[in-house]
Amino acid sequence: MAENPLAAPGAWDDVAAGYAEVVSDMMRPFAIRALELGGLTARSRIIDVATGPGVLALQAAPRVAEVVAVDFSTEMIRRLRGTIMRAGIGNVLTGVSDGQRLRYATNTFDAAFSIFGLMFFPDRAAGFAELRRVLRPGGTAVVSSWAPIADSPLMTLLFEAFQTGIPGFSAPQPNPDSLENPIAFQRELHAAGFTEVTLRPHTESFRYDSAEQMWDRLTRGSAPLQATRRRTDKATWAERERVMIEYLREHYEPGSALSTTAWLGVGRKAR
Question: Do the Cβ atoms of 46 and 66 come closer than 8 Å?
C-alpha cells in the first residue's frame, strides 16, 4: 500500500501559512462545537492533538485553565507560537509531538481533542489509545472527521473542478475503513477503551463572494492540491488553475450557501 503523504509532517509544513490564513475559518465552527461536547470548566486542563494552526486551542484558551497544543508539523507550531505571542495568551503551551506517541504522562488532562487530525494518522488505533491514556479518569475525548464527499455539496463542487482541470484526477472514493464511516468511527473509539461513546453529525454552510474567493479559501491550505501544484511546471499549472476557476464560475452562484458535514466522536475514560 502506498504511503499517505498527508501522514508526513512535510506536507503540512509546506501549507502552514495558507492553512492558518484560510482553512481556520472553515474549521472554527466545528472546533467550537467540539468544545461544547468536551464537558469543560474554568479549571480544566486540555490537550489539542494535531492542533495545526491552533483553531481549537485558541478558542479554548478563554474557557479553561490550560491548553497544551501539539502537532508533528514544526512549521504549524512555529506559526501558532507567533499567534499566541502576538495575542498575549498566557495559558496555551505548544510542542512538536506525534499524536501516536504523546510525550505526556498518563492521567494528565481533563479533556483531549483532535480536530481533523487523527483521521490522517497511519496508526489511528495508537492515536485513539494515546488520547485515552493521557486523559484523567472521567475525562472526555472529542475527535472530528469529515463525512463522505457525497454528503458535502461544497466539497463535491470543488472536486468536480479538480477533475475538470487536472488530467487523471480522481475524487476520493467512499472508504468504509476510514473515520468517514460512522460504524468504523464508533468501533475504533470502543476498541481504544472509551465508554459512553456517541457520534454526532455537524453541518456548517459557507458562502463566498466569487469563484475566485472560493478557490483561494479552499485550496491555498490544501496539502494534496499544493503538492500537485509543486510537481507541475508553472505554465501548465496556470492553465489548469484557470480551467478549474472557470468551472467554479459556471457552477457557483456568488453568495449562495454550500454545506459540508463532519462527524464528532465523543468518548469518556471510565473512572
Answer: yes
Q: How many CB atoms lie within 10 A of CB 68?
A: 24
124, burial (CB in 10 Å: exposed 0-12, middle 13-18, buried 19+)? buried
Terminal-to-terminal C-alpha distance of the chain: 39
Helix (H) or strand (E) holding 113: strand 109-115
Q: How far apart are CA 98 and CA 40, in angstroms?
A: 24
Cell of 176: 468504509
Q: Which of 19, 18, 77 is nearest to 49 (CA)?
A: 77
Q: How far apart are CA 181 and CA 146, in angstroms?
A: 9
> Quick check: helix, strand or coil at residue 146?
strand
Q: What is the dihedral of CA 240, 245, 249, 255, to 10 degrees?
A: 170
Helices 211-219 + 234-251 axis angle, to 10? 120
- Contact assessment for residue 149 and residue 155, using Cβ atoms and an 8 Å cutoff: yes
Question: How do residues 51-98 score in pLDDT, each as one tens digit?
Answer: 999 999 999 999 999 999 999 999 999 999 999 999 999 999 999 999
Amino acid at the residue 90: G
Residue 127 · residue 194 · CB < 8 Å: no
Q: For the purposes of burial, counting CB atoms within 10 Å of the CB of 105, is it exposed (0-12), middle (13-18) or buried (19 or more)?
A: exposed
Q: Which three cell numbers stand for residue 147?
A: 463525512
Structure confidence by residue, pLDDT tens digits, 124-139? 999 999 999 999 999 9
Rounded CA-CA distance 5/3 in Å is 6
pLDDT value for 4: 65
DSSP string, 248-262: HHHH--TT-EEEEEE
Q: Which three cell numbers stand for residue 205?
A: 454552510
Q: What is the C-alpha to C-alpha distance for residues 141 and 48, in angstroms, rounded to an integer? A: 10
